[in-house]
Amino acid sequence: MNGMSRMRALVLNLPHTCRIYRCYRCSINSPGFCLPPLELLYAAAVLRESGLQPQFVDAVAEGLPLIKVVEMVRKWAPDLVVSIMGFEHLTEDVDAANAIIEQTGVPHYAVMGYLPTQFPNDMFRHFRGDLILRNEPEQTLRALVGALLEDRPVEGIAGLAVRRNGQVALGPARPRMKASELEALPRPARDLLNMRLYREPFLGTPFASFQAGRGCPFRCIYCTKTYGEGYAIRSPAHVVAEIEDARERFGVRHFRFIDDTFAVSLPWTREFCGRLISTGQQYRWVCLTRIDLMDDERMRLLRRAGCRRLFVGIESGSQKVLDHYRKGYKADDIPKAVNTARRHGIEVVGYFVVGSPVEEESDYLQTADLITRLRLDMVSVYPMTPYPATSSHLNSAEQVDFVLYPYSLTYRNRRVSNVGAKRARDLMKRSYLSPLFLLSRAKWVIRYPAYSVTAVRAIASWLLTGWRRKRKTLL
User: Fold this and answer.
1) Given this structure, which CATH class describes domain 199-464?
2) pTM for this one?
C-alpha cells in the first residue's frame, strides 16, 4: 500500500441471529442487556491514532443480518477488517467472517479473542482470514497497521499470527501491558457508536462501559481470564477522567465496569470512590466482584460513589465444591457478604456453577438452599464447563471432548453434562418463579415497564425451553 490515505479499515462486531455479547474471555446470550463492544472500540481508537478513519459497525446492537453486512463491506471496500470472536458462538462467528471474506474479497481480516489466541494454528484451518491478534490486541494492531502502511512484512510482529500461502507464522509473545501502557492507550472511540442502542437492565441511558483493570489475580479453576492471571490497573485519576469525559461528551451517567474483578485493592478503591464522589455528579453503575471483597468499607464506598449493583461469582453453597473451584472463601461468608451489600443499598446478582464432577446431590441441595435463603435480586446459573486452557480443562482433559470448529465441549460421560444442564434450569426456575422474587421485583416493573416486559419474555422463553436443548447462557 502506498500512502496512508489509501488504506481503509473497518471494525466490525459480527452479526448474529441472537442478541449476544462478545468480549475476549467469553460470549453470552444477552436478551436483557446490550453492552458496547469495548475491546473493539479500543481497536478503532488505535486505528484512528495510526492516522486512519475507521468505519465501525456493531451488527448485533443494530440488528443487521449477515447479508446486509456483506453489502456494506462490499460498498466500503476496506483493506482491513477487525473483529472479535466469541466462545460458544465461535462456529457462527467463523462462518460469518468467512462469508464476508469470500463475498467481498477483503485483503486482510484480523480477529481477536480467547480461542483464536489459544489455538491459532487450529483456528486457521477453519477461518479464511489471514491475521490473529493474540492476547492484548492494541499494541499488536498498531504495529500491524504501521507495517501495512509502509509495505513491510507483517510476519514476526509480536503478538501476531499470520497465514501466508498456507503457512502459519507466529510472532513472539507480546508481554502484558503495564498500568502505564494501559493509560497510554487512546480512549475508546465511543463517538462511533449509536449510544441509544446500549443498556444495562434497569439502569438509564445513555449507557457506556469502562475497564479499569485487565486480568485477574485470583485462581478459580474454571475462569477464562482477560489476557491471563497478571493484573494491571489504571490509576483512579485516569479512570475518573475517562468517566467524566464520557459524561461531558455523550451525557453518560450510567455505566458498567467490565473488569473481571472490581475493587481488588482497597487503597485503589478508596481513592477511586473518593475522586468519583468529588465530581459531584450522580452516577449509577454496576461491576463484577467477589464475596471476599464485599466488606463493609468497600460496600459503603462503592454505594456512595454510585454503585447500584454487583455481579458476584458465588458459585456454590457447598464448601467442598468451593474448595474444588479454588474460590478461597468459606460458604459461611456468603450470606454475610450479600447482607452487607444489601445494607448499603446495593443489589446483588449471583452467579452459580452447578454440575461439577465432584458435586453430589447433597452439594447441589446446599446450593439450592443457599439461593432460597439469599433472596438475590437476580440469579444466573451455569453448568460447569471445563473451558480449554483453564485449570479445570487441564485437570480433566481425559474426561472431556473438545473440538474448536464446529465448537463443541462436552464431558465424555454425558450424564455429567445432562445433570449440570438440568440443575441449572431447575435452579433458575426456583429463583424466578418464586412468589417472593416476583413480588420484590414490582419496583422494576413500575420504573421500567417496557423493559420489564422484554426481560420477562426472555426469561420465560429460557425457562420453558427443554433443558436438553437449552442455551448455556442467559444473563
Assistant:
1) alpha beta
2) 0.93
